[in-house]
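Quick board copy: two proteins, each given as sequence then tokens.
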Amino acid sequence: MLRIIEPYILTFIPIFVAVDVIGSIPLFISLVEHASKEQRHKIIIDSVTIATVVAIGFMFIGKWVLWLLGITISDFQIAGGVLLFVIAVRLLLPGAVKIISVEGQDKDVGVFPLGTPLITGPAVLTTTLMMLDSFGIWPTFISLVINMFIVWLALAKADYIMKIMGANGTRAFAKIMYILLAAIAVMMVRRGIQGI
């Protein structure tokens, strides 16, 4: 039984870390604070839909794009690992936050910046492709869909989560996620070097 669910657990955790939904909640709240309940609901649906479509689309065409460019999976693992590590280190530095500049409260805020790059950004795309290569299509696809469901649930209950965890608790949780992201990045680089 454990052997059957192991690939799903091993794909779920890195994608969950890369998505970092808890770390995104403060920015989400700041972007929708003046929106009505109906507008907020539409923004959540738009952001999760766009994030899911982009991630799944890249999951299916990512390898083809790499092949077209003459990039091997090992090359992508090393480059992706370095990129993830840089992102993680930047976010771990004192005072670092997920900064996305938005001019005004745009009606498409669910598409940009929430859907992409906040929910599905370089970290998620890179991690998804690595998990696809390591564990196959079904564990990666199912883990991705479950993670997007968690994103939807977390954004829908964002105010409640912030009340429970507080601003400091949310920041602390996000920092732990960034450390895990850095460790996953090192693992990717190691696997890429071994592959070469």
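And the next:
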Amino acid sequence: MEQKLRRDRNMGANLRRLREENNFSQEKLCVQLQLHSCDIMRSTYAKYESCELNIPISVIIALKKIYNCSYDEFFKGLE
């Protein structure tokens, strides 16, 4: 069973901030995620940023590698 994080608006904002800081469109980021074995469509990723869907831990792990950042970057502002 895949683990997921509870939805939080700050998480979506952090995902968007990291993506924009790294100059990725949602489409280009999804290509990078696919190269890291995460088959995510752009529409699904958009729902992670808008907090409509919970983001799987496996995607956060892949994003950490793509952005070369710490996990703290994903959780800024979360209580």
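Board note added afterward: The chain has one domain: 9-70.
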